[in-house]
Amino acid sequence: MTDASPLGTAEAAFIEAVRTGDPARLALITERYRRELQVHCYRMLANYEDAQDLTQETFLRAWNKRESFKGHAALRTWLYRIATNACLDFLDKRNDRTPVPSELPDAELPYLQPYPDRMLPEDPQESVVARETIELAFIVAVQHLPPRQRAALILRDVLGWPAPTAAEALKSTVASVTSALQRARVTMREQLPDRRLDWRSPATHELSRDEREVVKSYIDAHERNDLDRLTALLRDDLRFAMLPDPGAVITTAKDAVDGWVSGGLFQRGYDDWRCIATTVNRMPAAALYLRTPGDPAYRLLNLAVLHIADGQIAELTGFEVAGKPWLGLAPAL
C-alpha cells in the first residue's frame, strides 16, 4: 500500500482522465478504493456513518486536487493521504471526539458503531490483517490515542508505510512521526495487554469452530429462554456493555443474566425471540429479533457482538441497531 513503481496503470489512467477532463472516468478509477478507504476512516473514527461521510469527503477533495496528482506516488497512497487529513480535520472540529482517557472502558465511546463485514475490502491482502485491526478491541484502543498518534500508528503499523511516506502524508518530519508512533505503541500495549500487537504479520480472519459453536448455542439459548444454558456460555469475568448506554461492567455470568432478567428480558412480552448469526468487525455476532404480544412479526432489537475465548463468551458488546440499514440486517422477520 506504499508507493508503487513509476506511473503504474491506475496512475497513468488517472492522469489521462484529468488531462481529458473526464469526470466519469476519474470516478471509476477512484471508486475501486472506496471500501479500503472507508475502513481506514473507520479505524480513525470508530463510527461507520462518519467513515462513510469522510470517504465521500476524500473523493470530493481528490476531485478538487486532481490537477496536483503527478504520479510521483501511487494513486492509492495519494488517496490515503487525503483521507487521513480529512479525518484529522474532522477530529480537530469535534470536541466530543477527544482521546478517551486510558481508565475509561469501551462503553464510554457512545459514538462507537459496528462495521458490517459485507463492506470490508475484497482485496485478500487487506483481509489478511483485517480481523486483528478491525475488531472492536483494536478500534476502541485506537481512540485512546491523540489524532496524530492515531494516524501515525495506522499508517506505519497497520498499513506498513515507510516513515518518510507517513511523514509526508502528515505534513511532518520523520523524527516527529517516529516519536508519535513510539508513544502510540506504548498506549496500545496498555490497552491491549493480551492481544497480538504485530499487525503487519499475517492473521486469521475466519471464525474458528469454537466461535461458530458458541454463537449457535447462544442463539439457541435465547430462542428457548434457557437461562441456565445462557449462563453456562458466559465467563465469570464477563465484560458487558450496551451502547450507547454509558459504563461497561465486569460481572459474573449469574449476575449478568440476573440483571438482564430484572431489566425485563426473558419475561412475558420479552420472551419470544428469533436470532440470526452474523459477523461484524470480523467478530461473531447475533442479531436479536423480538416479537411482542399482538405483533405478527419479529422486530430487530439489538446486535450482540461477542469476543469468545476458550469456548465461552468473554466480552459481550450490545448495540441498538434498529434504523441502521447499512448493517444489512432485515428490520423484521
Terminal Cα separation, in Å?
Answer: 42 Å
Gross CATH architecture of the largest domain: Orthogonal Bundle
**SSE-based structural type:** alpha+beta
- Mean pLDDT across residues: 88
Q: Indicate the CATH topology of the largest domain.
A: Rna Polymerase Sigma Factor, Chain: A
The CATH class name of the largest domain reads: Mainly Alpha
* CATH H-level superfamily title of the largest domain: RNA polymerase sigma factor, region 2, helix turn helix motif
Topology (SSEs and partners):
Elements: H1 9-20, H2 23-31, H3 34-45, H4 48-64, H5 75-93, H6 124-134, H7 136-142, H8 147-158, H9 163-169, H10 174-191, H11 209-224, H12 227-233, E1 234-243, E2 249-251, H13 253-262, E3 273-280, E4 283-290, E5 299-309, E6 312-320
Parallel strand pairs: 1-6
Antiparallel strand pairs: 1-2, 3-4, 4-5, 5-6
Helix pairs in contact: 1-2, 3-4, 3-5, 4-5, 8-10, 9-10, 11-12, 12-13
